[in-house]
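Provenance and format

Records in this collection were gathered into a single text stream. Each protein contributes a sequence line and a token line. The two records reproduced below are adjacent in the stream.
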Amino acid sequence: MRIIQASSEHLDLLTPLFVRYREFYGELAFPEASRRFLEKRLRRKESVIYLALPDDDDHKLLGFCQLYPSYSSLSLKRVWILNDIFVAEDARRQLVADRLLQAAKKMAKETNAVRMRVSTKIDNDVAHKVYESIGFHEDSEFKSYVLPINSD
């Protein structure tokens, strides 16, 4: 398995799995809007996306993760937000998520980030175990809140 950083040339490969990820979380597919969204993030360098590919096939995507940059005013350093991670159904239990997270962790270290943050559903026990296995721990210092804006 190879982990590579996505570029605009990977949009045809990435978009279908990104659409399945959105559907997994109960969203409508919107393939064209999904592609435009990803294309903007990559073109504007607003996110970093890692792709997991089989060693012998450049046309099959096993999984992806997308991170957004943020900053900590208190530590005066960068923070990476792991916003999206998804593994294709037929690639599960092959440590794809682990490899993607290790690539993200390496990138965070290389960019001198103070931390990576991730949120997941409270009942997503599989994700909890994966995150904890690479060193994430539940935040006991801060409670998160959400303020929906224009969420029609």
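Adjacent record:
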Amino acid sequence: MTFRDLIQLYERKKKQYGKEAFKYISQILREAKELHKRDWLKKPTPNKDHEQSWRAFKGKNLEKLIMYIIKEEVENLGLKIVEGNTLERTNSKNLSEELNKVKRNLLIDYGEFGAHLPDVDIIIYDPQTCEVIAVISSKVTLRERIAQTGYWKIKLSQDKVTEHIKVFFITPDEDKTLSIKNPAKKGRAIVEVDTDGSYVMSEEEIEESDKVKKFDRFIIDLKNLIYAKRNKK
């Protein structure tokens, strides 16, 4: 099971459901898990059961799948997209001049403890200025990751260089943390107060708000954000 196989599963759903394909991400992941297990049984990972192996695959490839889904539309807005790992793992000397500037524009200053990048999965930036527009974290469920996302939003907002950066969370929300606005679960409360919003890739009904919406609103909101920024200049 490879990322390419995951893309094929998504493309099949896209042929079937068009722009609504995002609602079936959990279904795609269930199908992918069966294929992954079939391959894993042929060559099991030493000291790991299949569930551990699958969780690692799923976590790494969900963010890649989201990038695949939004990349073209993001680029149509004149923006670029890059994986957070690319900036985190690559030595600055080996980055292009463009990505080096993007990295510098995202660093959080911890004073005597140095400058560090926030833990995010996807970075959207303007290639003309290398200004970071938004960062995205993604997970199948919210759990502890949403608290981390809220933390990074707070840290970014404390510096004039990074205070404008929008911090989003994209998720299939398989544990339905975001479904109900009132009474809100802890994860929903964090999204509403400490992030710029979450987009849900699910066919389940959710109580939407300014901060919690279905995934098909993501590009619309990004477009509005860009237009507002350009009209300010």
